[in-house]
Amino acid sequence: MSSRRAAPSSGKSRSRADGRAMSGRPGPGSRSAGGATSGPAAAARPSSSGRPAPGARSERAGRAAANSRPGRVNGHGGEGLPSPWRASRERQHDREVKRDAVIRAAAHAFNQKGYHNTSLDDIAAALDVTKPTVYYYVTNKEQLLFECFVAGIEPIRAMFHEIRDLNLPARERLNRVLRNYARAMASEFGWCMVRVEDQDLSPDMSGHIKAMKSEIDHGIRRLIREGVQDGSIHPCDPKMTAFALAGSLNWIAHWYRENRSMTAAEIADAFITVFDNGLQPRAAQSGELPSNPDAAANSMRRRAARS
User: Fold this and answer.
1) Are 92 and 124 members of one domain?
2) % of the chain residues with pLDDT over 70
3) What are the percentages of helix, strand and coil residues in the chain, rounded to 5?
4) Cα–Cα distance for residue pair 103/149, rounded to 1 Å
5) Could you tell me if 117 and 175 lie in one domain?
6) Are residues 102 and 225 both part of a single domain?
7) Of 67, 71, 192, 272, which residue is the least packed, with the fewest Cβ within 10 Å?
8) How many CB atoms lie within 10 A of CB 220?
9) Which residues contact 182 (CB under 8 A, 6 or more apart)?
């Protein structure tokens, strides 16, 4: 007789056990004639050596392999779900791409028809979307014009930051800025950059645009002053020279059209060649060193003030 006592069980459990005994089938965890345990309990019960039984090891290995499948969030069965954060990043990227398309379509429409003759319906039709779709990315047509202006001026502002810590003469740093300026004017945003202030914009929007234009103007003046000081630029009046450079570059937007014989980059290179030849010190051409750059610059300023 076994010295173990069986745990109390309900009548329902007893009837199930009796039914299995009558059918001659061993129940879960029951012992066979040889004393070995059969059924699912055998896989979970440790062997007499203290190590997991072979069935338990294979079951755990199967679970680990299932949990390691790509794309699974957890190991509770079923197909793994994609990360909601990854989906969010993809949606954000998708929104930015579509918003950029709206801004570019607006720039093309403003170039062809003018700001006041272009409607949001025109922009929606160019994109083959509905007007409410355009409103999802911008609040109104004025904001679209402003975004076109910003898209054009941002590469110029970015170049100012890029050259700030470069160990180069000021004339070379200025040339990099002017090259980006010329490319922006020859882009689809050029018209918006030069005509934006001619439109009937709100005072707040006009104030933002003037501030950004002033930032570019003063950045060019600063590089010209630094070039005069380091000897890489011929002595000149920084303000008048900055006006001359920006004025000639701004005019590109009035005459340049896409699909012409010269690309935007080629036009930029041609303008920089002209500017660079005019800005370099005369000593580089004649083989003489400038005698007094500051005095020459003061003389240029006095002449400019009299004219």
Assistant:
1) yes
2) 62
3) 65, 0, 30
4) 10
5) no
6) no
7) 71
8) 23
9) 249, 252, 264, 267, 268, 271, 272
Q: For residues 44 and 54, is the Cβ–Cβ distance under 8 A?
A: no
What letter would DSSP give residue 73?
A: S
Report if residue 71 sits inside a domain: no
Which residue, of 120, 138, 156, is where some domain finishes?
A: 138
Convert the pLDDT of each residue in 287-307 to its tens digit: 444 444 455 455 545 544 554
Instruction: Choose among 111, 100, 97, 196: nearest CA to 149.
Output: 196
- For residue 304, what pLDDT is reported? 45
User: Does residue 275 sit in the same domain as residue 244?
Assistant: yes
Structure tokens at 40: 């699912």
**Residue 19: inside a domain, yes or no?**
no
> Per the structure block, which two tokens stand in for 275?
């500017």
Q: Count the domains in the chain.
A: 2
The whole-chain average pLDDT of the chain stands at: 75
CATH code assigned at 211: 1.10.357.10
Residue with tokens 């630029």: 233
Rounded CA-CA distance 291/287 in Å is: 12
Hey, what amino acid is at 5?
R
Could you list the residue range(s) of the whole structural domain that residue 120 is in?
85-138
Give the residue from 192, 189, 188 showing the smallest Cα distance to 201: 192
On whether the CB atoms of residues 107 and 98 are closer than 8 A, the answer is no
Single-letter code of the amino acid located at 279: L
Do 125 and 154 belong together in one domain? no
